[in-house]
Design brief:
It comes from Acer saccharum. With 121 residues, the protein is of the alpha/beta class. It is 40% helix and 27% strand.
Length: 121
């Protein structure tokens, strides 16, 4: 789901950097909430799109990113930032092959901490 005003704002005034991630839902239905957000001119979170899926996998991310790509005017001129989950990475490569891909600094730091801790053991 994407609110028309959010897509219109993104296409006209928002810097084309999209952060995508998922969070696991703990209610009876389970599943995951897939989200795409940006930052507006005031540095505030700008919701772009969200969707619900059974799991965070390549199939779910491919579906979500296909829908997101339809709403973006210049899909090859965006930068996608993520935690580089395998499902996200595979879907980004397939749906946004010419877009720039980046990794979230927080997730990079967490991965480095985990990797370095494992090497010390």
């Amino acid at each position: 789901m994407a609110i028309g005003a959010s897509i219109e704002g993104f296409n006209s005034v928002i810097r084309p950097v999209i952060c995508i991630d998922a969070t696991h839902l703990k209610a009876r239905t389970r599943g995951v909430l897939l989200v795409a957000v940006c930052k507006d001119g005031n540095g505030m979170i700008y919701p772009l799109a969200f969707g619900f899926a059974n799991s965070e996998c390549t199939k779910s991310w491919t579906w979500f990113l296909k829908k997101l790509r339809k709403g973006i005017q210049n899909p090859d001129r965006v930068m996608l930032v993520s935690d580089r989950h395998n499902g996200i990475f595979n879907a980004m490569e397939a749906i946004f092959p010419d877009a720039a891909h980046g990794i979230c600094v927080y997730h990079l730091a967490q991965n480095l901490k985990r990797f370095c801790k494992q090497r010390d053991d």
